[in-house]
Write a structure and sequence with these properties.
Structural class: alpha+beta
Helix content: 40-55%
Number of helices: 54
Strand content: 5-15%
Distance between the termini: 32 Å
Number of strands: 21
């Protein structure tokens, strides 16, 4: 079939060899000069380091999804930095301890304040993180920097607030109502609930707890609550602005100046209605957060509701809410959660409460006739009812005339037909007041029907307790009255523990519950622990109401914190001192004006009794000033200078009175910077000093472009990570590892530089081997100096011609990299070594054929020798080069850019190497042949003399080649099939992925970070991305978008359901709800949508309106009055559970389409609620980071425009393996793809962006290898002479690939694109190692053993040398700094070469010995070119 092709190739290349021999310099030199010139293109080479651009597919959905994400949100994405904290070995300290967390706090304070000197615009300045830190809420320069940290669980989270405690507006978010880790009981109080409710970024984006707590151990406290008993690691994440954002905003340095102290701050300033200016200036969302308010629509803390109660009573609140839209938006939500009246914003546009607060049980307006038929409301409604139901007209007329029977009948009609509630009998009034007129009237009618109860009524009206109790049971059972839940009499002991009523009720209670006798007895004796236990029993066991949502009643003596001179304070103080004699001296001294006694009383009230703080405590501090108004107490001097003796003495006195602060003061005295800041906060908030006020100035540094901004960011990152090592050495309890956004890029660049010396060493080894090989020969059982060409000089010239090919290849790569075809570390580190390996192999093949040619024609002439050399060698290297080119061409079809670029670059390299092999190298070999035929040896070797004339040898035959082929093949097949079987099993066990920690140097900082990161932190932020969004103002689209978010969170694999999502859809609905509840948006202007996140089916406890309520009545009332909800009778109402103990409000309001983005021109409300939301609220500021706006849609009213795309933040938890990541990827995509919104998709840079490459990678690898082998077969068929020989070669190549892949598993390698590329390389190299042997076998005559022997003698050593030199080229990489290069370059490519040589030199000869086809088209007896051929060569 292909019989004529092989001779044609031999003739063409033979002629070409003869032509080159007639003028070697006219071929080799011009080609070399041209290639050298092309090589200078290397200076235009552009390198790509971005992981996304390298490893995210360029085809399919992931490419478009990645591009949309980057186009819309890259500028809004921070450059992340991170620490991982682990306990120091043998420290014996739990990370969840004050000692460890104090060092964490110190580390965070250090990195925020770290100063880096940098030149911007020709001026050197110092910069620190707070100058350019990332802030999701970024309306004011002094807002907190973004962080994920365990410190966010505590008040010390304010360490990332610019200015620290000087930043009074925002530092207060974290204190004083948050716990301090210094006094926190981790064993009892670090519960799952605490972590979920407290360990979140209060002012920035929230996070999943597994983002910063790693290796969590679970436990249980003494109350049986699940706790986090320990962690193996903390992760701290923070960030800088992107270079795009920094170039726009500039770096902003804040300078703080003290304005002195003020004893009156915050809520106090809102009490003076004559001047609300200071109230407006001081009070904001941060103030509310400092009081314990949570800026979400969730159940609020007692301290928050206490603060909001005081704020609601302030006459300045209307002005405050109008001036501070952010506070107003969430303030009304919090007011509603605390059961307080909301504040109308601006002119009252409507009264939504009239619509939705009407009792659902009251029914239609006509139902009022059940209570009083004489009202105008009843008469109007009754006429309307009769008009629709004329059959009841006569009954109504009779009832209006006073007919009692008709009245009762009409009442029945209203209940049955109009759906009115059944009226409660009049006698039920006796349950409320047995002496009322209504009770008397109703009781008489009831007694007339039930005379047996007359005596009970009479005794109850006389005040007998037993009769009253019995009467209540009768009315409930017989009359169907609804009874109020009765508060047990013993509950009086909560507020009046020394009263006679308490003693009586307590005795009765103990009689019924004797197990509590000991506690009550101890409390009566004054035992403090027993008093607390009785309080617990009454609240938790008896169910006594606490009066303020779960908190025990405030002692009356606490009124002294409000006005110590009042009569109420005097009476309460006397009573308290009488009951607690240990406090008598302090109270008596205070009553006489003794300053120390007054201070002690203040301590007793605020510390021992835990009287309410907030505004009361601050007012008390002002009242209890011992010095004149213009002279502050001694302790306050510490805020100015902590090194004075006066401060030391005052501090000791302060600690003596406030022992709980002793640890902080002790650490501060020891020089701990963070503790000193804590002491300052304690003195300012707990002491009598008031608060030191600060003003600030801002200096902005501008940048000319993004590159200049990145120079600063990159320089700062490198500077702090270079110096942090010295900082963390001082820590006793924690070990710290770190990484920055540029670490991996920098280390990849350093790795490329580090590879250069190793590459040079590899080249030197190859060169030395070539010199040695061509300088020596093995003759007669001895090693001698070689006398045969080409010799060591030609080898050196051949080696440098191959290096020229490498230079030329990178010149071409540099030119094409100007386009989208960039270069990467993969190209820089592999192409130079592979090219040398392949080029050297070609040189050895040609040298082998030349050696045979001069042995065959020792008298020449040179054209005849070169004809023979190129006829055999040229055809052979054409075969292998073509097969390799095709193999890499298939690799170029890969959608992964790094793989595609590498494959194209290797194709370029193979073509360049081939050009050199048929032009420059033949010219070098011609010179060597000429010298040898002229009697001159190599210039490095002795003269050998002119060869004597001999007759040309006969045709190539195997001749007598004695070798134990049977034994050889038996051993080879045994090893081969055993290895093949193990490898096939290994392939089935291959895991997916490439551990990032294995791609960096062992023991380096990055490795120390990545190892615990992979072990403990496998939670990732994942976005639900929406293309478009301009139609979000349609309620159906809005609801569907929210449904997509819910379905993804609720059903995708391993999603964090507890976190839910961060979504502008949710935030905007919250904003609309706040405006609705303050009557700035009216019922007619909203649509309602079902939000599954708020439904009882989802069961989020913080969405339960009745959370914290103990009675069903209170729950029902809260459910009925909950704002917002739809009008009575609509489906958009809150839903009370059947048990009456929980209530969920799944329907949420959103503005109708015509008001959504901007209001109509004649609208009386805001011009654009959308703009107000985005501009004035914290959640709006966060939403701006989640939305990309269509600037073309901006109008005069809507200054932001409509969304062109938006994203919602969620978290996927603990996906530790690639298989788990792919499982999440498939489930997430399936859910969203099947959802109602076109253009929505899930995306992140790790799970989806990089993880996509592993999807079906096994199948893709199999297909790529199969196609490579199939094409190689087609290429080899004509060049190996006979199709069966080509099939045998391909079978051997396939086995080599299988063995390589399977052995990779046993060598602890994974299936990734490094292995994918290596298997394609394995196809090319295996073809190289097998094709030459098979081709020579097919052209030889004799027995199979003789033919195999001839092939090994002729080209076997060339094949072996090619493999050996390739191995020598990669050998130095075994000492590379990066584990990745050691494993996936040295070890893997050594495996590829080793398996290829084993199959080519052992397995293939054994197969050919047993089943090799007969010789096809052997060359003619003499291959001397005839005269015609010589003439053609001359032409």
């Amino acid at each position: 079939m292909f019989g004529g092709i092989e001779p044609a190739f031999q003739r063409v290349f033979g002629v070409w060899g003869s032509y080159v021999s007639m003028g070697p310099t006219r071929v080799g030199l011009p080609v070399a000069l041209l290639l050298l010139a092309i090589g200078f293109g290397v200076f235009t080479l552009e390198r790509e380091n971005d992981v996304l651009n390298l490893w995210v597919s360029k085809r399919g959905r992931i490419h478009d999804e990645k591009q949309f994400f980057l186009d819309n949100f890259e500028e809004k994405t921070p450059n992340l930095q991170s620490f991982i904290i682990r306990p120091k070995k043998n420290s014996g300290v739990n990370l969840l301890s004050a000692e460890a967390l104090a060092e964490v706090e110190d580390l965070e304070a250090w990195v925020l304040a770290y100063e880096y000197e940098h030149d911007v615009g020709g001026t050197r300045r110092n910069f620190r993180l707070e100058d350019f830190c990332f802030k999701p809420v970024d309306r004011e320069v002094q807002e907190p920097c973004f962080q994920y940290s365990v410190l966010d669980c505590f008040r010390e989270g304010n360490v990332f607030t610019p200015g620290g405690n000087r930043n009074a507006k925002y530092a207060g978010i974290y204190s004083p109502n948050r716990f301090s880790f210094r006094t926190f009981d981790f064993e009892e109080s670090f519960t799952d609930a605490f972590v979920r409710e407290n360990c979140t970024q209060w002012y920035n984006l929230g996070t999943a707890d597994t983002m910063f707590l790693g290796g969590i151990s679970k436990g249980e406290n003494s109350r049986g609550e699940p706790t986090v008993s320990g962690v193996e690691a903390f992760r701290i994440v923070f960030g800088t602005k992107s270079k795009e954002r920094l170039a726009k905003d500039g770096a902003k340095r804040i300078t703080w100046q003290s304005e002195g102290f003020s004893a009156t701050t915050g809520l106090d300033l809102c009490q003076d209605v004559s001047d609300c200016g200071e109230c407006i200036e001081e009070v904001g969302l941060a103030t509310a957060s400092a009081a314990g308010c949570i800026p979400r629509d969730v159940a609020q803390t007692d301290s928050c509701c206490e603060f909001m109660t005081g704020l609601r009573e302030s006459a300045c609140i209307d002005n405050l809410f109008r001036a501070n839209a952010a506070l107003a938006s969430l303030g009304n939500i919090v007011l509603g959660r605390c059961g307080l009246e909301t504040v109308a914003l601006g002119e009252l546009r409507c009264d939504n409460k009239e619509v939705f607060l009407a009792s659902e049980d009251s029914g239609p307006a006509v139902c009022t006739c059940l209570k009083d038929t004489s009202t105008s409301e009843c008469q109007t409604a009754a006429l309307a009812f009769v008009k629709e139901n004329p059959e009841y007209g006569a009954t109504l007329t009779a009832a209006a005339g006073g007919n009692e029977t008709a009245t009762q009948e009409f009442a029945g009609v209203l209940v049955k037909e109009a759906g009115c509630p059944v009226p409660e009998p009049e006698v039920c009034a006796c349950l409320v007041d047995s002496g009322s007129t209504e009770c008397a009237s109703g009781a008489q009618a009831f007694i007339d029907e039930n005379p047996k109860y007359a005596a009970t009524f009479q005794d109850a009206s006389a005040g007998e307790a037993k009769a009253r109790k019995e009467l209540a049971e009768i009315l409930v059972k017989e009359a169907g009255c609804a009874v109020e839940e009765e508060v047990p009499e013993v509950c009086i002991c909560l507020t009046q523990s020394n009263s006679t009523e308490c003693q009586t009720a307590g005795a009765a209670f103990i009689g019924e519950s004797p197990e509590f006798a000991a506690a009550f007895g101890g409390a009566a004796a004054g035992d403090e622990d027993s008093v607390k236990e009785v309080g617990r029993i009454l609240v938790e066991e008896v169910g006594c109401p606490t009066g303020d949502g779960g908190k025990t009643a405030v002692p009356e003596v606490c009124t002294c914190l409000i006005d110590s001179s009042s009569d109420e304070c005097a009476a309460a103080g006397l009573a308290f001192a009488t009951e607690n004699p240990e406090y008598q001296p302090a109270f008596l001294g205070a009553s006489t004006g003794d300053a120390d006694a007054i201070q002690e009383v203040a301590r007793i009230l605020t510390v021992d009794l835990e009287c309410p703080t907030a505004g009361e405590k601050k007012r008390m501090r002002k009242i209890l000033q011992a010095e004149e108004e213009d002279e502050l107490p001694a302790i306050c001097t510490c805020l100015k200078d902590s090194d004075t003796k006066a401060c030391s003495d005052a501090g000791a006195a302060f600690v003596a009175k406030n022992p709980k602060f002793a640890p902080a003061f002790a650490q501060a005295a020891g020089g701990n910077v963070s503790a000193q800041a804590e002491v300052g906060a304690i003195i300012a908030t707990e002491g009598p000093c008031g608060v030191e006020k600060f003003s600030f100035e801002v200096e902005t540094t501008s940048f000319k472009d993004e590159d200049e901004a990145w120079d600063l960011l990159h320089g700062w990152e490198k500077a702090w990570r270079s110096n942090v090592g010295e900082k963390v050495k001082e820590y006793k309890f924690i070990e710290v590892s770190w990484i920055t956004s540029s670490t991996l890029d920098d280390e990849n660049e350093n790795a490329a530089k580090a590879q250069a010396p190793l590459m040079i060493v590899g080249y030197v080894l190859v060169l030395l081997y070539m010199i040695l090989y061509f300088s020596l020969s093995y003759e007669g059982g001895k090693i001698k100096i070689s006398t045969m060409p080409p010799g060591p000089f030609s080898a050196i010239m051949g080696f440098f011609s191959i290096l020229l090919g490498v230079f030329t290849t990178f010149g071409i790569i540099g030119v094409v990299s100007i386009s989208s075809l960039k270069t990467s570390a993969l190209t820089l580190q592999i192409v130079p070594l592979l090219m040398v390996g392949l080029g050297i192999n070609d040189f050895f093949v040609l040298a082998s054929y030349m050696k045979s040619a001069v042995q065959k024609y020792p008298m020449g002439p040179v054209p005849m020798v070169m004809y023979e050399t190129m006829a055999g060698g040229g055809t052979s290297i054409t075969l292998s080069s073509t097969a390799n080119t095709v193999a890499f061409a298939l690799g170029a079809l890969s959608p992964i850019p790094a793989v595609q670029w590498f494959s194209i670059h290797m194709m370029i390299g193979i073509v360049v190497a081939y050009v050199i092999s048929i032009t420059v190298i033949p010219s070098i070999l011609t010179s060597a042949a000429s010298r040898w035929l002229g009697g001159d040896a190599d210039i490095f070797l002795p003269r050998v003399g002119k060869p004597s004339k001999v007759e040309p040898s006969a045709n190539p035959q195997g001749g007598k080649f004695s070798f134990p082929w049977y034994l050889f093949s038996g051993v080879v097949f045994g090893v081969f099939f055993a290895w093949l079987g193990i490898s096939i099993w290994g392939i089935t066990q291959l895991d997916l992925g490439l551990s990032v920690s294995k791609s960096v140097p062992d023991g380096k900082d990055t490795y120390r970070y990545l190892m615990p990161s992979e072990e403990y932190f496998q939670t990732f932020p994942v976005y639900v991305v929406f293309k478009g969004g301009s139609n979000s103002n349609e309620v159906d689209v809005y609801k569907q978008s929210r449904d997509v978010e819910f379905e993804f969170v609720d059903k995708a694999y391993k999603m964090d359901r507890g976190y839910k999502s961060t979504s502008w859809l949710n935030y905007y609905s919250d904003y609309v709800a706040s405006q609705f509840c303050s009557n700035d948006i009216c019922m007619a202007e909203v649509d309602w949508f079902f939000d599954s996140f708020s439904s009882k089916e989802f069961g989020d406890p913080i969405k339960d309106v009745c959370a914290g309520l103990t009675s069903k009545k209170a729950c029902k009332k809260a459910c009925d009055e909950r704002c917002p909800q739809g009008p009575v009778g609509s489906e958009f109402r809150c839903s009370l559970s059947d048990e009456g103990t929980s209530c969920y409000c799944p329907y949420r309001p959103i503005l109708k389409k015509e008001y959504f983005f901007e209001s109509p021109e004649d609208f009386k409300g805001k011009e654009s609620y959308w703009v107000d939301f985005l501009n004035t609220t914290n959640t709006g500021s966060i939403s701006r980071s989640l939305i990309n706006f269509d600037e073309t849609s901006i109008t005069e009213r809507n200054t932001f425009g409509v969304p062109a795309g938006f994203r919602t933040l969620t978290f996927v938890e603990e996906v530790t393996t690639v298989d788990e990541k792919l499982k999440h990827l498939d489930s997430g995509r399936g859910i969203i793809d099947n959802g109602p919104i076109d253009g929505a998709y899930p995306f992140d840079l790790i799970v989806y962006g990089v993880g996509e490459q592993y999807k079906d990678l096994g199948t893709k690898t199999t297909i790529a290898v199969a196609i490579s082998i199939g094409v190689a077969l087609l290429v080899m068929m004509p060049l190996i002479v006979y199709w069966l020989a080509a099939v045998i070669v391909i079978a051997c190549v396939l086995s080599a690939v299988v063995i390589t892949a399977g052995t990779a598993h046993w060598a602890d390698m994974n299936l990734n694109y490094s292995l994918y590329v290596s298997l394609i390389v394995a196809v090319g190299l295996s073809v190289e190692f097998c094709a030459h042997i098979a081709r020579d076998f097919m052209l030889s005559t004799g027995t199979n053993g003789q033919r195999v022997g001839h092939a090994i003698q002729t080209v076997g050593f060339a094949v072996f040398n090619g493999g050996l030199t390739t191995f020598l080229g990669v050998l130095p990489v075994a000492w590379a700094e990066f584990n990745y290069f050691q494993v996936y370059f040295f070890a893997l490519y050594s495996l590829v070469v080793g398996v290829g040589v084993f199959v080519g030199l052992f397995v293939l000869p054994a197969v050919l010995f047993w089943m090799g086809p007969a010789a096809r088209n052997p060359p003619p007896p003499v291959s001397m070119p005839d005269s015609k051929t010589v003439e053609m060569a001359k032409v």
